[in-house]
Sequence to fold (239 residues):
Amino acid sequence: MGNVGLQLLWYFLHILLSIWHSILAIRCFIESCFITCGVLEKYKSLNIAKLRYLAIVIESEDAHQTSKVVKLLQWLDSIGVKNVCLYDMNGVLKKSKEAIFGKLKNAKPIEEVNEAVTLHVPEHMTLEFVSYADGKEAMVKAANFIFVENLKRQNFGGEIDGQVISEPLLNEALKVVGCKGPEPDLLLVYGPVRSHLGFPAWRIRYTEIVHMGSLNFLRYGSLIKAIYDFTKVHQNYGT
Fold:
């Protein structure tokens, strides 16, 4: 009898949570429609200068929808977001790079632009394409660099640095091997899971992360809201 009562309680709580999530989803949808239609005045003015570098994480299955990815980038360009990093685990977006650039006449790959330029707002849109394999390769290169540097110290009569690899040491190694990359101010996740899906962790130490839901339900109003909310956040950076 006790087990039956617990099961009933579990089902009841599950129903309540489902109803609550449905209400939130409907509320977000309505708010997104109002933002898109320009009804909510506060969303019309964005301090876009605060968003210097944006990262977009897309679940690999959704990343095959090139037309929606292009639409998202076109929205960002019209809003004024000019520096964007596109990421998916399996490298689907990297394989679609030519198709994406073919539909975005105002975009350039980050390889053609000095990284320092991404700290400013250029006339064109700058795109970076990253996959999970890039992160693994970067860590291997950085670890190898640290090992070689320690080996050089030993060969020159110095002591081997046996301490645990620290964050500053790793960051310096990543920078030297050319794998550090710009740190995004905001990261938008499009997919069913609330996770950055393996996006290089050393690049998101101070990044705001927002889950946007599936790319199938891409909405302009939701994008505007996520950017607006970010511009209103005050971040305290530790030493």
User: Anything to note?
Assistant: Residues 2-37 form the longest helix (36 residues).
